[in-house]
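Aim 2 progress update. The chain analyzed this quarter is reproduced below.
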Amino acid sequence: MTQLKTEPVSEREPAFWYLIPHGYLQLDLNPPVEQIETLIRQLLSLPDEMRDRAEEVLRFYAGVVTSLNANRVQACLVGSHPDDAGRIAFSVLTVSIVPTSGANAKLVIAALAGAGSPDEGMRPLELPCGTGLLVEKKLSTTAPGRPPEGSDTPPQGQVWQGTVAVTGTGIPDIIMIQMVTASVGLADDYRDILLGVAHTVTFTDPSIPETGSNVDPEPGSAAASIRSDFG
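Predicted structure tokens:
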């Protein structure tokens, strides 16, 4: 079921909303103390042969949450979808706020768009909420798993990373939406999901009804395609 995500209003951070696509579950970046205490009790009750591995996972989760919060990540979602071979393809979608240190956010995005080219995986976007920029690339990174026997070098793998930067009228910061997946062969599909999320970003509270808001989009239009993908 598609969810509507609302960002909290504060003096430093803009309020914005977007739709979460099917197949994504949100990671709790601010787990309550009671939940952490419950996890620790469950960990301590595990058999010795399972406890060490569970502790590694818990420490990894704590490290990820700490890192995401330090980088002003507002949401982190993990997606799982079947691929053409019947296996499960995983992806991570994050939404974060990037301060512009007093600069005009629209001008920053325009300057970045003007400096790049489609050949470099960079192109400007015209989104319903305002000016945007798409950047995509393939990266080599450390892969999950243990190093091969007799080697201290961790295994390496390749990921596809797509990023949309967007801002709106009167918004001082840049909203960054990023998708990462190790299923490089499905880059086109994940790009479509990323762009679909970007097209739903709004800086206007969607709970406030607008005149004519019940009008259906024109069949075959981009808006109609996005509605189909997001339910």
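Strands lie at 3-6, 17-20, 24-26, 73-82, 88-98, 122-127, 130-142, 156-166, 174-181. The helical segments are 33-44, 48-70, 105-115, 187-200, 222-230. These observations will guide the mutagenesis experiments scheduled for the next reporting period.
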